[in-house]
Amino acid sequence: NAGVTQTPKFQVLKTGQSMTLQCAQDMNHNSMYWYRQDPGMGLRLIYYSASEGTTDKGEVPNGYNVSRLNKREFSLRLESAAPSQTSVYFCASSAAGVSTDTQYFGPGTRLTVL
Amino acid sequence: AQSVTQLDSQVPVFEEAPVELRCNYSSSVSVYLFWYVQYPNQGLQLLLKYLSGSTLVKGINGFEAEFNKSQTSFHLRKPSVHISDTAEYFCAVSEAGGTSYGKLTFGQGTILTVHP
Fold first, then answer.
1. Taking CB atoms and an 8 Å limit, are A99 and B102 in contact across chains?
2. How far apart are CA A86 and CA A105, in angstroms?
3. Which run of H or E residues covers position A37?
4. How far apart are CA A32 and CA B51, in angstroms?
C-alpha cells in the first residue's frame, strides 16, 4: 500500500516549456487535490476533483490544467511554464471528499522554472 | 470564505520544553479544524482534527489542541518536545457542510525547531 505517489520528484524547466505532473493513489479514494507550496504562504489549492470524471478550480488555477484519468490518477499540466510557477507541488486524496475527511499527501514534486 | 493565520513563522525551543503553536481563523460559516505536520522533505500528515464535541483534541506524538470558538483559535500544544518534533506545522480549516468537497484552507505554517 503505497498511499499517494507523485512523479517526478524534481524537475527543472525553461520558461515556455510544458510538463505534466503525475499523481496516483491506491486507497480507493474518491477525491483528489493539487496544491502548491511557497515559502511563507502555506499550501494553496490549484484544482480538485471531487469524484472521478469531475474537476474544478481552486484558489490559484491560472496557468494549470488537470485531468482525472480514472479513480486512481489525477495529473496536473503546465502548458507554458513561467518562473512564477517555481514551487513545490503536492497531490492529496481523501476518501469521500467531505469536509470532515483527512487528506493524505504525496511526497511532492519540486519544480524550478528558469 | 475562510482565512487562517498562524501567528508565529518560527518557534525555537529546547528539548523537553513545552511548546504552543498559535492558530487563529476567520470564517462566516462553521468550520472544521486541522493540524498537519510536514517533516523535512516529506509530504504533510495529519496530527489531529476538531470536528465536534470536546474542545480539547488529542493527536499523534503527544500533541493536543484546544478549540476556542469565542476567540476563533485552535492552538497546538505539547508539554515536552523532542528533537524529532522538528518540522513545519500547518493549521487548516474546511467549511462544514455544504459543497466544499473537503477543500482545505491552510495557514502560512510554523517552523518548529527543537534544539538539544
1. yes
2. 19
3. strand A31-37
4. 21
The backbone region for A85, taken as left when phi is positive above 0, alpha when psi lies in -120 to 50, beta otherwise, is alpha
Residue A7 exposed, middle or buried by CB count within 10 Å (0-12, 13-18, 19+):
middle
CA distance B31 to A100: 9
56-95 in chain B: CB under 8 A from chain A = 90, 94-95
What would the pLDDT profile of A16-57 be if each residue is shown by its tens digit? 999 999 999 999 999 999 999 998 899 999 999 999 999 999
Take residue A94 and report the three cell numbers written for it. Answer: 481523501
B69/B81 Cα distance (integer angstroms): 27
A107–B42: do the CB atoms touch at under 8 Å?
yes
Q: A44, A112 in Cβ contact below 8 A?
A: no
